Amino acid sequence: MSACQPSETPMEEGVKLEVETEQVPVDKGRYQRLVGKLMYLTHTRPDTSYALSTVSQFMHNPGEKHMQVVMKIISYLKAAPGKGILFQRNENFLKVEGYTDAEWTGNICDRRSTSGYFTFVGGNLVTWRSKKQNVVSRSSAEVEYQGMAIGIQELLWLKLLLTNLSFSPKEPMMLYCDNKASCHIVHNPVQHDRTKHVHQRKVRRESYFRPSCMLGRSAG
What we know:
By secondary structure, this protein is α/β, with parallel strands linked by helices. The protein folds into two domains: 28-79; 96-211, Nucleotidyltransferase, domain 5, CATH 3.30.420. 32% of the residues lie in helices and 15% in strands. It has helices at 28-41, 49-55, 64-79, 140-164, 180-187, and strands at residues 96-103, 114-121, 124-132, 173-176, 209-211. A five-stranded mixed sheet has the order 3-2-1-4-5. The longest helix has 25 residues, at 140-164. It is globular. It starts with 27 loop residues before the first helix and ends in a 9-residue tail after the last strand.
């Protein structure tokens, strides 16, 4: 791949992968080794997290289309091999923020959606994740709402960690989402009774947490 054409994105927009009945098989061992090596890069290259979480779902039965996406990721890495995460000291180094986003029914095999989040402490990116949800959602609002619940869990974990290190946040932690319906549900207590069907983990409500929304700004 040293002579390949660099790519501007790790994955083409709108690509839907699945296990086809008549797909062209590829070397399963080579595919697994490539994906396994690329996973190490997510520790410093969060921009590849979504693409890698997608191709890693087909480790058991990869096809030619799956391998093409893996090669696309490698081509993307060649375009900017020096990219990484920069940590720097800011004035408000205890400010904790989280951003969430989701893709509705992105997996055409089981119709489950993918949600992701990333969090900042003092303006520095510290945690991120892209993962397929456990249940099938019936609307984009459900997907985004579940993604926000996972983001809240991460913020609570960060607060506990910082508190144990004697750096407890001194202001409300903010969670940003770009879905209007989910933001309306969060801010309007009347809507809570209408979302009992939404599968979500138990999240302990704290007085220091204040949900917010940044409409028009994507979390991805």
